[in-house]
């Protein structure tokens, strides 16, 4: 049997979810297909020679505008991958009630082979191609960081766009994930990883569900292995460790480390920064084949690298009770069947790594409103809270400890509001999915997530009169 592509696998999840709905076949077909696919080539001077670079931008669904999705810089970028990731963005946005359609972009390069100056030239030329075809704007298509890109690249994109469209008052909203100094938002860098933490915490707090897989409720004391110490993996591991878990293994592309007594995430991260590898960390065991760490015994396995990391080859040896997909598509369809048959709980990427797009939405709102969250009401709330504390102190006849006093008086800043909004989003989204899963007797979380998402996208199409 011919192996299914990444996009076909995503479409297959929609077909599976459709069995639990009553929507017409034509509507389901429309939901699955990509609305627009743009592949292009452009020259960039590297040294004394020119290289031809291939770029992509896929707009999967226009049921809501703008469409939203990251830009990936990787030598493995290809059309099917970008289509699949764009589709996942559609369903992810719908799942967490972020009012965007899905999109994704990619540039086929290995960033390690280029200087910063050349990467800037590539990014700006890629942006120019998108501008020329109306594949970027605050109202139509809003990119964001992804694998191989970050705030620096988003700043180049925003600057290029504003240069071409100086009259556009909302030009800052053409891209999210920008540096705070360029109208970005506090908390965006760590948003996906923090969302992974909120999601896992919500899942393991369900005592009834944990009993089925042989775990006690709560994160405290859970043993966790994380694959990938990039932005998502690092922040997920950091917040999980702060939440009480024991990080016993960390895998990177060039090796991994394991210590059943626990690793210090910050120290391992610093070692990676200083030496380019996590290997030889203190008393930890070196694991030359980093993928082998996925098969070590643990309570929660968090693949936070690239797609297709757990396959039919290694799935039978996975010993985790829970696999939390912090990356996009880290489990192949065949591997998923094996894991579910083994009774392993899979928390799908569609839900678990939605923190990034959630906070991107907050940044987009900030750019359109032209005011930072908390700026208008922080001082007013502090004044109001101060008056309340004084009234309480007079009523009880003694002062409140200055530690508690300061904590009660403090008004929310932008980061407080962003983190609160992110936590609320992740908690509510999981409760919605779990309710639908139990109501419709859906066998697994991924299908329940897709049922939730497909229903919301379908409702949008129907409300516009496209499908009666």
Taking pLDDT < 50 over at least 5 consecutive residues as the criterion, the unreliable ranges are none
CATH C-level class of the domain at 191-352 is Alpha Beta
**Overall pLDDT:** 90
Helix content: 40-55%
Radius of gyration: 23 Å
The total beta strand count reads: 12
- Which strand order spans the largest sheet, edge to edge or round the barrel? 9-8-7-6-10-11-12
Elements, N to C (H/E): HHEEEHEHEHHHEHEEHEEEHEHHHHHH
What's the CATH architecture of the domain at 191-352? Answer: 3-Layer(aba) Sandwich
- At the fourth level of CATH, the homologous superfamily of the domain at 191-352 is NAD(P)-binding Rossmann-like Domain
Report the end-to-end length measured between terminal Cα atoms. 38 Å
Biggest sheet layout: 7 strands, mixed
Give me the secondary-structure category. alpha/beta
- Report the principal-axis shape: globular
